[in-house]
Amino acid sequence: MEPRFDLFATETGTRIGKRTAAVTAAIEPALPKSLRELVCLRASQINGCGFCVDAHAKEAAASGESALRLGLVAAWRESTVFTDAERAALALAEEGTRLADAHQGVSDETWARVREHYADDQVAALVGLVAMINAANRFGVILRRPGGSYEPGVFAALRD
């Protein structure tokens, strides 16, 4: 599969990329990297973004996440390897990603679990993270960015 278009080869695309990176940088201090990568991986799986699945699986592995947990992200509800806090974040990621599939969006039950486990700044970061990864997935899917060639650390280099 060949990408359709290199968004970052344009002036407008570069501006979009820099602003997206700035939002992501604002989120980072509030949540552990492992949690951020798990949330992004799950949303990317749902959206079918090969580039983002590749990137977030590799970033998670590079930061010490186990192959077992990475392999079970898609089946987190039927797995014993995630904490209650991680489960709340993964539920938010799923429901926030599948907005068109649920008339009410994020359920009150999921929201209550998120509020139980995360402080206000972390909640803001989780909501922002789910929104941003869904935007990134749209870029990847629309532009047909294939997975497989991502090298860990590239995201950090984009912010420099």
UniProtKB/TrEMBL annotation:
Domain of life, source organism: Bacteria
Task: Name the SUPFAM superfamilies on file.
Answer: AhpD-like (SSF69118)
Pfam families from the UniProt entry: CMD (PF02627)
Q: Residues in domain Carboxymuconolactone decarboxylase-like? A: 25-95
An example molecular function term from Gene Ontology annotations: peroxiredoxin activity
NCBIfam families linked to this entry: ahpD_dom
List the protein's name: Carboxymuconolactone decarboxylase family protein
Q: Which organism is it from?
A: Streptomyces mobaraensis
